[in-house]
Amino acid sequence: MKRPLPIPLRVLRIAGIAAVAGFAIHGWDDKKEKPPIPDEKRVAMIDLEDKQSGPGYFHADSATQPDENGIRWLEPDQAKQQIDRVLHDRKLDESNRKQLAKLIGEVSEPYPSRTIGGNRINIARLNVALDAMPR
User: Fold this and answer.
1) InterPro entries from the xrefs (predicted)?
2) Strand 119-122 relative to strand 73-74: parallel, antiparallel, unpaired?
């Protein structure tokens, strides 16, 4: 016949099982600050802009910083000043100049604040539309 374990050993055995189960469920939490999870939309927008940073694309000046969503904005006049360079880099002819000007007008959107006024252009959206434009 088996002898039962003394009560103190039973308590230790139960405490050990509870500790192992607690670590298995909750992991080792030593109260270290965990890094924040990056915003997927912001990361995707920055990645898209990096891919569209070569010649043949519209670019923001170096002073333009992305907003909280990772979007860089461009004034329509700044985009129109880059039409000649984009036409040359993409080896497009003068007939495409009107298409580019129309494209800039289509992707322009008003500022969310009424105090600023005017329009702005999401550079990534403009460049994606530029890639989709028929040649």
Assistant:
1) KdpC (IPR003820)
2) antiparallel
